[in-house]
Amino acid sequence: MTTSGRTRGFFQTSPRGNTNGRVLLFITTLMVIFGTIAVASASEGQASANGGSTWSIIVHDLIYLGFGAFALYVMTRVRLDRLVKSAPLLIIVGLLLLLAVKAIGVTSSGGKRWINLHVIYLQPSEIFKLFTVLFMAWLIQHHHNELGNWRQLAIWTLPISVGAGLIVIEPDIGTSSVVAAIALTILAVAGLSKRLLGRISLLGVVVFGGYMAYKPYSAKRFFSFLHPNSDLLGSGYQLLQSKIGLGTGGLAGLGLGHSREKWGLLPNPHTDFIFTIIGEELGFIGTLAVIGLFVAFLFAAIRIAQQCTNSVYRYIVIGITTWICVEAVINIASVVGWWAVTGIPLPFFSYGGTALVTELAAVGLLYNIAHDTSRSGDVTIHEHRLTNFRDVIEGRPSARPSGRSVQHQHVRRETPRSL
Description:
The protein is mainly α. The chain has a three-stranded antiparallel sheet, with helices on one face. The chain has helices spanning 19-42, 44-49, 56-77, 80-85, 87-104, 124-143, 150-156, 158-168, 173-190, 194-214, 216-222, 237-249, 274-307, 311-335, 354-374, 388-394, 403-409; strands at 106-108, 111-116, 121-122, 380-382, 412-414.
């Protein structure tokens, strides 16, 4: 791993990035600006109902945006090798924060998910997503030869399992599902056998079924999207109002700021259902713009992964991309009635405090990786057993590489035992 141009300690000189990093940063900036405008409009009704100024919620959102911008900058300057080495410590910190939620957490909207720091409310489950990405990358780097054994896999991924379990009992099954998706995707791309992936998936289904059996009210709410009309004033009400809002928007919408649903009809219009308000005010065109930005984000992140000359950093890119895109898909599917409403926010758009800060920190990390890749010289790539999906992610050419690419990359490949 090259360390040229770095300073001693945990931080490096300010990176300039490369084209891929700048494109990703530009797309993220567009989403954040779009999201801030959407929150300003969608939060008017809730802010008025709280008895304060109609701008009170957006002011808090801008404060968190400031923290997020700072977190992004810090992550662009952090030394990647030192950050990965600190992953075991970070996952322990994440678990301690989740335990602190159980001890001193604040209950809101039927769940205990936040810690009141008086200045801000901290949501550790959001931070745990980023720590999961880093820990899984570290785990594969140092213990990939042990992960082909079911018992060793269970032991080494125990911190992730415990964290996901603590998040489930908050309760927040949506966020725990995202954590599981991050870990499983990284393991799959690293070459974990289909047999072990199948066992893990089956175990997840059993745990999910047990939770739903233990919490019948949660099960009713979760599966209400299948038959929303059976309880229009109860579990199906939120989805009904969401569909009304999207339908009212039509092609071009009612106009920015002219939503009707945000005035007490649709619960959580500036958080979980921000996509509905965008559709109502800006119409089908506005929703397509949101989806288009996420697709652009996905392709920009894949491009960074393809350019990575270090497999550990590639796993970080894949983990973060999975996190952002899975949340976007779940949120949008929920508000249109294709999936259960689980409280997953729309990344970069929903008002969420800690979520926005950690998402921007993750983007800073992607930018840092893009910069590291652009100035890497001779490096060692640790290859695992490849699947077709990994060929796409890594940009593996179908034909013999050109002499120019070999001459300028000088990549030495080592092939340890696959998972």
